[in-house]
Amino acid sequence: MTVAGVTLTKAEIDVKREPKNQKEYQGVIVDKGRHADSGLVVFVSMKIGESQVKDMLVREVVSAVNRCRKAADLVSSDSIRVFYDGEQTADLKNRTVFLKAVADQKNYVSETLKAPVCLTSERQVHMHAIANDTMDVFGYQISVSIAKESISFASDDILKKVFKNGTQRQVDALKCYVGSIPYLEMNFEEKFSCTVDGESVALTPNEHFFQYSL
């Protein structure tokens, strides 16, 4: 090609391919990998439905937990519990979508993280958070925290009955003491006896305390 008396060769011309515009789709030219020279164009749907949003939110929870593990200097083999919630101040509809997303895929999240996953409101007094993360994911306000793995207790009303005249203070003290015992040292097949405020009490497995299993 000659322009204004100047001859242009292939070495001086840059040919750029662009995909045609398609409604609700974004075209991507494949210029890398084994299909680079095939003239292949992939059109990706840019429409985001509720199912895609839920999957995205669940992935964010998994990522947040891994960040918490790193912040707490834990490794993947360390046993933890995971707690999650949507911020109370967030848009009610968005919070509902987020909570349902995790609830629907709780088994997947638990198996992926190798940890029990519960709502923050279900965190018992002895399950101290060792790391937490909050984020805004496209308007969805999410909070995630982790605690070291520990036993679960029955309701406070049931635990009060192991004392002669059980008070909430005694129940809280009992939970904190038993919860401080390393999880792997607990025997979930035998009664556990201890003394709280000078009173001896005995806890029965699967009645007063429980082991969590995936």
Structure, briefly:
This protein is α+β, with helices and mostly antiparallel strands and 214 residues long.
Description:
The longest helix is centred in the first third of the chain and has 22 residues, at 50-71. This protein has helices at 50-71, 92-104, 106-113, 156-160, 168-179; strands at 2-3, 6-7, 25-29, 41-45, 80-86, 117-119, 129-137, 140-148, 152-153, 192-196, 199-203, 209-210. The chain has 214 residues and is of the alpha+beta class. A 4-stranded mixed beta sheet has the order 6-5-8-7. The mean pLDDT is 87. The chain is built from 5 helices and 12 strands. The protein folds into 3 domains: 2-45, no CATH class; 50-148, hypothetical protein PF0899 fold, CATH 3.30.2320; 152-210, no CATH class. 19% of the residues are buried.
